[in-house]
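User: My instructor asked us to take a sequence, write out its structure as tokens, and then describe one feature of it. I'm not sure where to start. Here is the sequence I was given:
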Amino acid sequence: MTSIKTLVFNPFQENTYILFDETKECIIVDAGCYSSNEQQELVAFIKQNELKPKLAVNTHGHVDHVLGNAFIKETFNIPIAGHPEDLPLIQMASKHALMYGFSIEDVPTIDQNLNHNDTITFGNTTLKVIHTPGHSLGGICLLNETEMFLISGDTLFNGSIGRTDLPGGSYDQLLNSIGQRLMTLDDDITIYPGHGDPSTIGEEKTSNPFLS
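Assistant: Let's start with the prediction itself. The structure tokens for your sequence are:
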């Protein structure tokens, strides 16, 4: 059984997720920890629960989701995985950070490419990669089909969708990704978005104003 810990980090109030199961193996999704206090909070949770990090995953390459990549890689010596089409965003993250008042060193590059229909495994858990371009070219979601949850990054939110006015964004492409690849999923699947509160596929089908 997969457990999901949500940590809200940085001024963008970004959701960093730690996914783990009974084996104690875990992955870290969208490490947004920026301050030393945020870094310590993440490490403390992993140590207190005796977790064994295996992989860091980026649902996309925007700076608020990769602020902690260097720290995570240095601290736990684990690879970073993401969609190759967002590599240019990750390579520009330190410059983008300055635009928002952050100062970070260059973000480590992607060690492991994640493409549509690839799988991520840790412990007894398997996640399916769903490529959902539109918020960025390389945006992905992570689906656990047996336990009925979806890590949606900034593709789909509770009552909203990802913005499309940033580099690599396309409103039409995002709506197509959501319609073709997410709204076809089971209504009972719980959505864990990159910002804000969880929702379900069914709830978004009926109440999300962008999808009506």
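For the description part of your assignment, you could build on this observation: The chain has a mean pLDDT of 96. Try explaining in your own words what that tells you about the chain.
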